[in-house]
Amino acid sequence: MSKVAREAYWVVIPSYNEAATIRDVAARARHRCPNVIVVDDASSDGTEQALAGLDVTVLRNEANRGKAGSLARGFEYALSRGAVGIITLDADGQHAPEEIPAFIERSQDDPNVFLIGARRRDHRRASFRRYLANCIADFWIGWASGQAIEDSQSGFRLYPARLLQTVKIPHGPDRSFVYESEILIEAARQGMVIKSVAVSVGRRSASSPSHFRPLLDIVRITRMVAWKLVGRGMYPVGLYRLLHRRLGGRTPDRRHYGERASVTPLRK
C-alpha cells in the first residue's frame, strides 16, 4: 500500500485568549505542515490580530464554543478539504510543533490508527492533583475502551478522518475534556487501535493558564464513562483487557508519566 501524501494532513489549533503564544506556535506548525487551521474561540485579547499576515487559515467563533466546539469546527473545515488525518495541539506553547512529523510518519503507514502524544513528564515536578487526575482518567477510559491508553488527557493527537466522519459526539462549551475522552472510547468501539507517540512537554506560558480543572473535569469524565460502562453491563471484558495489558510486561517507567514500551520514540 502506498503511503499517504503529507499534503493530506491538516493541523487544527484551538485558541482562546492566547495572543502571547499563538503566532509562534502557528508559524512553527506551518513550517512542518502546509495546512494549518487556527480556531479563535471568540478571544478578547487580539488573538486574531496576532496571526495577521501568517499563511494559515483562521476561523473565528463569534461566541465562545469551548475547546470541543472549536475542535469540531476545525475538523469540519479540514474534512471538507479532503483531510486524511488531523493533528491537534494546544496554542499555549506546551506542545512542540517540531514533533508533528512523527505523527504524520506513523500515520502514513496506517491512516486508520489514532495517535496520542504521550507526554514524558517527571511527576515529582507536576501538580499532584493533576497527575492523579490524569491517572484516574487513564484508568476509566482504558476500562471503557478495553485498551491501555496512555496520557488520555493529552491534546496533542492525530485523528483519522474515518473516525471523525462517522462518530458524532456532543461538543457544547462544558464538554471540552469530556469530548476528547469520549472520542477515544468511541474509536475503540469501532475497532480502531489507539497508540502513543512519545512527545516532550514544554513550559506553559505564564499568560496561558490551563483550562483543565482537575476536580470538575475528572468528575464529568468519570460520569460519562460510568454511563457507558453501565450501558454495556460494566464491560468486564474491557477491564480484563486493560489489566492484562498493563500487567503483561508493559508497565510504565515510574520516572516519567506516559513512557512505556508501546510508545513510539521520536526520530532524531
Automatic annotation (TrEMBL):
The family database entries (PANTHER family) matched by this protein are listed as: RFBJ PROTEIN, UNDECAPRENYL-PHOSPHATE 4-DEOXY-4-FORMAMIDO-L-ARABINOSE TRANSFERASE-RELATED
- Which one of the record's GO molecular function terms can you name? transferase activity
Q: Where are the transmembrane segments?
A: none
Species name for this entry? Candidatus Nitrospira inopinata
Could you list this entry's UniProt keywords, alphabetically sorted.
Transferase
Q: What is this protein called?
A: Glycosyl transferase family 2
Q: Which residues form a coiled coil?
A: none
Question: SUPFAM superfamilies annotated for this entry?
Answer: Nucleotide-diphospho-sugar transferases (SSF53448)
What the entry lists under InterPro entries is as follows: Glyco_trans_2-like (IPR001173), Glycosyltransferase_2 (IPR050256), Nucleotide-diphossugar_trans (IPR029044)
Matching entries from Pfam families are given as: Glycos_transf_2
Give every Glycosyltransferase 2-like domain span.
11-122
Q: What does the record give as the organism's lineage?
A: Bacteria, Pseudomonadati, Nitrospirota, Nitrospiria, Nitrospirales
